[in-house]
Specification:
InterPro entries: DUF3866. By secondary structure, this protein is α/β, with parallel strands linked by helices. Helix content is 27%, strand content 21%. A hairpin with a 7-residue loop joins strand 6 and strand 7.
């Protein structure tokens, strides 16, 4: 394993972190005179100031990666005591009905994330004995039929939330309590997600859960099973949306991608008595053959890796050539042998556009917007609509 280290000097700070344990964005000047953006994890120490000398992990930028292509501050050089205790990670979610502000005071946790690395940190997992919710996990619990929207890409999250909120507005009903469960298949710090930040600002999330080595959610969990249970019983969610953070890993091979976790998530949701609803990855704007029409990732993750049945809503596309290709790909994938497929007419383009506009910021996937890749968003909205009907008992039987 290769890590590239470089020293730099902070020249300015950019904006304010959303939370005390968030990521601070700074501009730095490297040894070659180049200026660049860098992110500083405030769990590691105090805020940076102009003039601070820092040690950067520049590996991702030097490799020319996409989402992960930014420098990360590993340490501030000089001006630190020999031993420094960074600020504690928030580990207890406060209900949004509480009059008290969120607490970021000292918390005693024993679960290590990023274990056996120089950046390992202790968090209070929702399951452990010192957690106020320990008793919930000492008993046998289920999801009680809760719809669980499962996606591969982080960009599916805001689109799905927008459509769920739009459906509630149309029905003149209270918006469902939506919990976001972030896996560790992509970025590990929750704070790096601009979409989570925006959804919080809008008040559209009831809370967040991080599990595995992902960290920074309102609730920390050990694994995907307890993460789902925490979404249901701690955050009191009506619907959970589960997908990785920014930065999916892919290799161009059938099984070598981190999004294959979607199949495992179907099994977890089903085992716990939830209603797994898979958001198919569909695109007719992606130039890569494996992602044209029904993505090979969906065919493998849901069609092969998912060993339990899920509800798989699919859009009936208006363009005849696209619709024909998609149906043939679905037939060849074998999705129908294991799952409950349902072809549905997707929302009109202008309706989806209005729902996404309420978000107030651009929503793109791989740099493509709704206008660039309508099939991608049609698939998400179709799945989100099915999950909403399951919640309201207006749809077909749960898978």
């Amino acid at each position: 394993m290769r890590i590239q280290w470089e020293t730099a000097v902070v020249t300015e700070t950019v904006g304010e972190p959303l939370f005390p344990n968030g990521l601070q964005e700074v501009r730095v000047r490297l040894g070659n005179g180049e200026t660049a953006a860098a992110l500083h994890d405030l769990v590691l120490g105090t805020r940076l100031r102009p003039g601070d000398e820092v040690l950067l992990n520049t590996t991702a930028v030097r490799l020319g990666l996409g989402t992960g292509g930014v420098h990360f501050v590993h340490a501030k050089l000089g001006r630190l005591a020999e031993s420094f205790d960074g600020p504690d990670v928030p580990v207890k979610w406060e209900p949004e009905t509480s009059d008290r502000p969120r607490s970021f005071g000292p918390q005693e946790g024993h679960m290590m994330k990023l274990r056996y690395t120089s950046l390992q940190r202790a968090v209070l997992s929702v399951e452990e004995q010192s957690s106020p919710h320990h008793a919930l996990f000492a008993e046998s619990r289920t999801l009680g039929g809760m719809p669980v929207l499962i996606g591969e890409l982080h960009s599916m999250l805001p689109a799905a939330v927008c459509w769920l909120c739009e459906l509630a507005r149309e029905a003149e009903a209270q918006a469902p309590r939506i919990a976001y469960v972030m896996t560790d298949g992509g970025a590990l710090p929750m704070a790096i997600s601009g979409h989570v930040r925006r959804l919080r600002e809008l008040g559209w999330l009831a809370g967040t859960v991080t599990y595995g080595h992902a960290y920074g959610g309102d609730v920390e969990a050990v694994n995907k099973y307890t993460a789902l249970l925490a979404a249901r019983h701690v955050l009191e969610a009506d619907i959970a949306i589960v997908c990785m953070g920014p930065g999916i890993v892919g290799t161009g091979t059938p099984y070598g991608f981190s999004g294959i976790e979607a199949g495992e998530l179907v099994g977890a949701a089903h085992a716990l008595g939830g209603a797994p609803v898979a958001m198919a990855r569909i695109s007719f704007a992606d130039p890569r053959p494996q992602h044209c029409g029904l993505s090979r990732h969906t065919a493998v993750a849901i069609g092969q890796a998912a060993l339990a049945p899920a509800f798989v809503p699919l859009p009936v596309l208006p363009a005849e050539a696209e619709a024909t290709l998609l149906r043939e790909q679905v037939r060849q994938s074998g999705l129908a042998r294991r799952h409950r497929l349902r072809w549905e007419t997707p929302p009109p383009l202008e309706h989806m556009a209005a729902a996404l506009e309420a978000y107030g910021q651009p929503i793109t996937s791989m740099g493509r917007s709704l206008q660039d890749d309508p099939a991608f968003f049609a698939a998400i909205c179709t799945a989100a609509g099915a999950a909403y009907r399951l919640l309201r008992n207006e749809g077909p039987d749960k898978p």
